[in-house]
Amino acid sequence: MSFPFFLPGHPVSASLRRSILASGLLACAAIGNAVADDSAPADASTGPSWKFSGFGTLGMVHASVRDADFSSTVLRANGAGRSERWSPDVDSRLGAQLDLSLGRWSGVLQVVSEQNMDGNYRPRIEWANVKYQATPDLALRVGRIALPVFLMADYRKVGYTMPWLRPPVEVYGGLPIASSDGIDATWRWGRGDTRHATQVFYGRTDTRLFDDRRLEAHGIAGLSHSIERGPLSARLSALTGHLTTGIGDEVFSAMRGFGTQGAALAGRYAIEHKRVSMVSAGFSYDPGQWFVSAEAGHAQTHSLLGETTTMYAGAGYRFASLTPYLGFARARAHGANRDPGLALAGLPPRTQALGAALNAGVNLYLGTIPIQTTLSTGLRWDLATNVALKAQYDRARPTDGSRGTLINTPSSFRSGQTVHVASVALDFVF
After folding, report:
1. How far apart are CA 277 and CA 361, in angstroms?
2. Element (H, E) at 29
3. Cα Rg of the chain (Å, integer)
């Protein structure tokens, strides 16, 4: 699944970014065991209990591209390549999680510090919710809750829990909305050795991007079903919602001045209360010595974000504390990622020039719909309990006029070039 937002960043100096990162390291503890089992309610006879845990990733990334930045998500100001040959901003993050349990009631507060689109590491509340365990099998929550869209949705930011250095960017990097404000209900049930968890959710999100740009999604509703049987884990998810952003407003406002044809184009591509729908399915099989996992998804946005299908597959083998692994990921678009735009024949020269600029602007946005394949290989070394060092090489290639998952691409960017990415990261939890 992919949700290809076009979010141009604002470069800041390397020294400032490192200063901000250092401040973040001192200011924040890390988000820890974000996937603790909460299926059973606490004994009502016991008193309140607190738990503090954390996680962190300290990473450096090098990319061979010089007219774009490689990034793990579009919600970054910059990355490796155009902005900086070696960048700490792609994967580095810290945060903290506090859990409170009081009988059938419990709560969680999770804060994450990672680079945002303003180029700083201002901490953000990722989770903040209260849960009521109505029965041993049924739990209800209200507040800010992780969207259960991906197989690794509950721990996608906890690098230590994953064998690879980062989740595949074609799938996970394309959906920057990781949580929503609302309610959910989870029913856990089982048959034999198979455990099921069926979750329904409803909410909204309002995220500041940069300047006065915001990403608003309301009426987010969905269903997720997880299955566990021995070494097998699987998740099926579907959601829908209405999305609004200010991206492209200046282009579409001007287009509406071209009468019926301009209004039709603006209505087709402008991200104004557009319904989006997503479905995804993934599995992981991990008997201990080796593992294999894969996910695939489809997104329809009815806007300049297009219709996309993404997938990844990966596998690895454990040799004591060393785990080499391989991966393949792909993102493709359905339909053309270019539009002839406004018909300009017969218009006055000045109007033609404006129309041509608007057509180019629309196609620049359409070029951000990711069409890309990536081959990856890496090695994880478990240095000590709760600490792992990882190295990864990615060979990414955006094609068909798309910038792929790259960010900060100028109008001169040419699709089709191979991007070589080398990454190292130290992951830890406590």
Report:
1. 26
2. none
3. 22
Question: Quick check: pTM over 0.70?
Answer: yes
Cβ-in-10-Å burial (0-12, 13-18, 19+) of 323 comes to: buried
Token pair listed for 166 = 């980062």
Distance in angstroms (rounded) separating the CA atoms of residues 298 and 374: 18
pLDDT tens-digit map of 161-193: 999 999 999 998 767 678 999 999 999 999 889
What the block records as the tokens of 209 is 């991007």
Residue 1, class by beta-carbon neighbours within 10 Å (0-12 exposed, 13-18 middle, 19+ buried)? buried
Domain 14-37+48-429, CATH homologous superfamily name and number? Porin (2.40.160.10)
Low-confidence ranges of the chain (pLDDT < 50): 1-45
Which is it for the CA torsion 335, 274, 146, 383, positive or negative?
A: positive
For the chain, give every domain's residue range.
14-37+48-429
Q: Which of 243, 240, 251 is nearest to 271 (CA)?
A: 243
What are 400-417's pLDDT values in tens digits?
999 999 999 998 898 999
